[in-house]
Specification:
single chain, 5-stranded mixed sheet, Metallo-beta-lactamase, Chain A, alpha/beta, globular, 322 residues, 41% helix, 10 helices
């Protein structure tokens, strides 16, 4: 027993040293898992925009430990993040990390895939999210490098999942059944959420933002609102949002719903009035939305995206039919 424990400790030390040697300027995420339920752990992301200081560590990730394996929730924004995540999981358990669920294709959730594949982990995504990752991933990686700096993304490459999930699936991690539920065309064309039946814990990905302004570059807000109704009815006790603190009641759902309505209404009414995008971006953000983390930057980005979509739809509808 002592010899086995010593080997495990030495293995962890060498792993951390190897990670440290691969990156310059002492960039570290210093990930520490927090246990929120029996066998359920979260790495909490910061309620900030992407910066050189946080290295893209803005989304919640986590893992669930069964009797014979581990399932991971999202792979993080960089190769370094994913490798630190794996090392941090090893401080909790030496069970194999057999499954990693990538909730959607956005960089803060999906750019650590390669590290888990090297660890012989099956990586799952929604097929529509996989397609967007392949199409947009290289461009998004370039944006990420600009925002957080080269040191953080050293070695990071866009990789593909090993399996696709379009319909509900159950995964047994050893005496523990975890459900994977797909949601299409809401926050993105393909989102996955993860439900641990044993502890009634739901990892909702970016279908739920709590205390932070939601992002909508790939969203259909009307369908997203319908998805929120479905999520509420899933019978969870604890919900981990893609961004923000833990959720234990429906209040964050109503806050998110109200903010999404506000975004859609603002863009729709501006286009109907014939306002320019510049005029629309001058809209004053009312309370309580003005208290959301990152709201100024995300409001600008969201309104720009929604405005252009609505303008394009309005233009197409006005074309004569021959």
């Amino acid at each position: 027993m002592i010899r086995g424990a010593l080997v495990s400790v030495l293995t962890l030390v060498f792993t951390i040293l190897a990670i440290a040697g691969a990156y310059s300027d002492h960039v570290r995420y210093s990930l520490k898992p927090e246990q929120i339920a029996d066998g359920v752990y979260v790495f909490w992301g910061q309620q900030e925009p992407l910066t050189w200081e946080n290295g893209g560590n803005i989304a919640n990730t986590g893992f669930i430990v069964g009797n014979n394996s581990v399932l991971v929730l999202d792979t993080g924004p960089t190769q370094l993040y994913a490798e630190e995540m794996i090392a941090a999981i090893r401080t909790v358990t030496n069970l194999p990390i057999r499954h990693a669920i990538v909730t959607h294709h956005h960089p803060d959730h999906a750019f650590g895939i390669q590290s888990f594949k090297k660890n012989n982990t099956n990586v799952y995504m929604h097929p529509d999210s996989r397609s967007l990752l392949a199409k947009e991933g290289p461009i998004l990686l370039g944006f990420l490098e600009t925002l957080i700096g080269t040191n953080w993304i050293t070695g990071t490459k866009i990789d593909r999942p090993t399996q696709l999930i379009r319909t509900e699936r159950s995964i047994d991690v050893g005496g523990r059944i975890i459900k994977i539920l797909p949601f299409a065309n809401g926050h993105t064309p393909g989102d996955l959420v993860v439900y641990d039946q044993e502890t009634r814990t739901l990892f909702a990905g970016d279908l739920v933002f709590h205390g932070r302004a939601a992002t909508v570059p790939h969203a259909n807000i009307s369908i997203w609102l319908d998805h929120l109704d479905v999520l509420i009815e899933l019978g969870w006790d604890t919900l981990v949002p893609g961004h923000g603190p833990i959720v234990t009641d429906q209040i964050p759902f109503e806050e998110l719903r109200s903010y999404l309505y506000f975004l859609e209404q603002t863009a729709t009414e501006s286009v109907a009035r014939g306002d320019t995008l510049g005029e629309t971006l001058q809209t004053e953000i009312p309370a309580p939305f003005n208290q959301l983390a990152t709201v100024k930057a995300e409001f600008q980005r969201s309104i720009t995206s929604l405005f252009r979509k609505l303008e394009a739809e309005d233009f197409e509808a006005s074309l004569p039919v021959y």
